[in-house]
Amino acid sequence: MRNLKLTNGQGTKQIIGKLLILSIIAVRMVFLTTPDFNEFNIVRKSNSAKHKIVKTINN
């Protein structure tokens, strides 16, 4: 059982790492493609809205 738990933890860490790398690449692409950062602001607003929804669900 301990071995299974260790392998699961490593797997989740790898998945999280890949997601972080992908998100960083996506943000860089947005910065490179848009001279003005309107799209980035829209993304920020949608993220904050998602966080609010998540908070209300958790409460």
What does this structure look like?
- It is a single chain.
- By secondary structure, the chain is mainly alpha-helical.
- It has one domain (2-58).
- The protein is 90% helix and 0% strand.
- The chain contains two helices and no strands.
- It is flat, with a radius of gyration of 17 Å.
- The mean pLDDT is 69.
SSE topology sketch:
Layout: H1 2-33, H2 38-58
Keywords:
59 residues; mainly alpha; 2 helices; flat
Structural class: mainly alpha
Radius of gyration (Å): 17 Å
Mean pLDDT value: 69
Q: Roughly how much helix do the residues carry, as a percent range? A: over 70%
Distance between the termini: 33 Å
Order of helices and strands: HH
Low-confidence stretches: none
Number of domains: 1
**What is the general shape?**
flat
E-strand count: 0
How is the biggest beta sheet arranged? none
**Count of helical stretches:** 2
Tell me what portion of residues adopts beta-strand conformation.
under 5%
What's this model, at a glance?
With 59 residues, the chain is mainly α.
